[in-house]
Amino acid sequence: MSSVFTKIINGELPGRFVYRDDKVAAFLSIEPVAYGHTLVIPVEEIDKWTDIGPSTWKQMNEVAQNVGRACIEAFGSQRAAYLIAGFEVPHAHIHIFPANDMGGYDLSTAMRADATDPAKMDEAAAKLRAILGTDDNGYII
Fold first, then answer.
1. Where is the HIT domain (predicted)?
2. Assigned fold of 4-130
């Protein structure tokens, strides 16, 4: 059975993409710790980050770093947080989010999907895409 992330990549479930290519995709978390919280994932369905091949891992981290820079610029945060947890969905992913303290590292404090403001989610995605130079589907313009 496909992971929820694979279903998002395949268009079976909606996603707010900020980046995508043939190896890596990045889209907003539906349960963010802050608006702009992005998940960077391999397109290939791989459960554990420790099983990702070197070239895909390199590409994921390049995308994560670019998304992190975009988070700082778009949201005026002091830093961009980087977190690998890996228990929520059996598909490897890196959490990137704007951070001014350690609070966001506790994913139990994330907003629930039904508590987020859709307009703010759309705005966050648009801000990140504008900085990253990607279109509404996350592809480089």
1. 4-107
2. HIT family, subunit A (3.30.428)
